[in-house]
Amino acid sequence: MIAPARRTAFRILLRIATIDAHSDELLRSREVDALSAQDRNLTTTIVLGTLRWQLSLDAQIRPLLARPNTKLTPETAVALRMAAYQLQHLERVPAHAVLNDTVELVKQGRERGASGMVNAVLRKIAARPRWRAPGSLTSPKDIAAAWSHPEWLVERWVQRYGAEAAESICRWDQEPASVTLRLGPASESSLSSLDLEAGAFLARARRLLRGDPRAGLQSGHIRIQDEASQLVAEMAAAAGPDAEHVLDTCAAPGGKTAILAERLPASEIIAVDASLRRLEVMQRTLPPSLRQKIRFEPADAAKLHLQPTRGLILCDVPCSGTGTLARNPEIRLRLEPAELKRQQARQIAILRAALPGLAPGGRLVYSTCSLEPEENEAVVNEVVSSAAGTRLIPVAGLLDTLLANGVLTPSGRELLRIATDGACLRTIPGVLPCDGFFAAVLERT
Questions:
Q1: How many angstroms separate the CA atoms of 25 and 277, rounded?
Q2: Which fold has domain 226-444?
Q3: What is the value of pTM for the model shown?
Q4: What is the CA radius of gyration of the chain?
Q5: Positions marked catalytic
Q6: Containing H/E element for 425?
C-alpha cells in the first residue's frame, strides 16, 4: 500500500507541473486536512522540498536515463523528482519505502510501462551519498547549481547585492519557511499550548517552534504573517497615524489591512482588490472585531479614479515574489526575465492611479515582496519623476517612531539598520530572518 503522504504529495506536484496551481493553496486543501498530523507534515515536506530542489534534481536524473534527451511525461518526471528528493535530502525516510511507493505510483498511473525505468534510475540515486551543503561559493553559476536556483536570477542578485548575500538568499530559500505569528489583543497565556519565541524585530511577532496554531487562528488570537510583511503594515500605520480615510489598493489576503485596522481604529478603511473571490475569503478569515471596521470593494487598482481625500494609501502591489521563494518555491520554476517588465508596467499603473487619491500632506506606502529593482526603485522613480508635488520620505524616521511607540524592539531597530538603503526599506532573506520586502513612502506636498 502506498503511504498516504506520498500519494497526496504526488497528486499535488502533478497539478503544479501541469496547470497553474500554487503549492500554498493545494497544501491547505481538504485532501491534506484529512490526513493525520504526521502525514500532513510529510506531504508538506515532500511537496515543498521537491519544488525547492527541482532544478538540481532534474540535472541529477537526466544523465541516468538510457536516452538523456528523452522528454519525460509529467507523471514520470514528478515521480522521479519527489523520490530523488526523499533519497537525497530526507535522512529519516527509508530508501526501500521510497522506491517501493514510487514504483507502485507509476504502475497505478497512465505510465505504468515506465515503472522499470523509474526503479532503475532511483536505485542508482539511492546508491549515491546524500546531498551535503557546499562551502562558501562566489560565482553565480556555482551558487545556482549548488542551491537549485535559476542562474539568471542568481546573476542578478550577485550583481545587485554581492556574492555573499546572493548565496545567503539561496540558502534561506532552501530551508523550510518559518511560521511567524502576529499576536492579537489576547494575552500570550491563551497560547500556552504553543512553543513560541520572540520575533526578530517586532514586539507582537512570534516565531512558532512547536505546536498546532489552528485553535488560535480560529479564535482570532493570532494570525500567520511573515515579520517583514507585518513591518510594512506597521510602517504604513505610522506614516498616517491621524488619517481619517485610508485606502488599501491591493488588499487580499488581508494581513496588512488587519494591522491598519488594529493601529488606526478611528479611520475609515477601504480594502480594494481586483478579485472578488479573494475579498470574500478575506472577509471570512479576518476576526469580526477587525472586519467590521473595513469596507470591502472589488476594483482594479490600476483603473481607480480617486479624489484627493485619503490621508493614507497602501499600495502593496502584485509582483514577481522573488523575496518569498522559501514559501513559494514554484515561482523560480515559472519566472522568466521578461515577466519583470510586465510586472513593472502593472505596478506603475497602480501607483499612478493611487497617487491622485492623496490629500495634501497624505502619505502613500508602496511595497512589494520582490528583490528586483525593476519592481521597486525603478517604479518609484518613474512615478515620482512625473508626479508634481510628490516627494520620497526616508523610512528611517518611521522606524524610529515605531521604536518610540514600542512597536519595534530596541534590538530589532538595530537589526533593521542594514535594511534601509537610502530612503527605502529592503529586507533580504537570509541576511535578515524574514521574507524579502521593499517599501517606499511618498508624501503629497
A1: 14
A2: Rossmann fold (3.40.50)
A3: 0.95
A4: 23
A5: 369
A6: strand 424-426
Cell of 202: 517586532
For CA atoms 218, 219, 220, 222, the dihedral sign is negative
User: pLDDT tens across 192-234, in order?
Assistant: 788 999 999 999 999 999 988 888 887 778 899 999 999 999 9
Residue-wise pLDDT for 107-166, tens only, equals 998 888 899 999 999 999 999 999 999 988 999 999 999 999 999 999 999 999 999 999
Give Cβ neighbours of residue 269 (< 8 Å, ≥ 6 apart). Answer: 246, 247, 248, 257, 260, 261, 293, 294, 295
According to DSSP, residue 53 is labeled T
Q: What is the DSSP string of 249-318?
A: TT-TT-HHHHHHHHH-TTSEEEEEES-HHHHHHHHHHS-HHHHTTEEEEE--GGG----S-EEEEEEE--
| CATH label, 4-126, candidates 3.40.50.1820, 1.25.40.10, 1.10.940.10, 1.10.340.30 | 1.10.940.10
Q: Give the domain ranges of the chain.
A: 4-126, 140-174, 226-444
Inter-residue contact 11 to 31 (CB < 8 Å)? yes
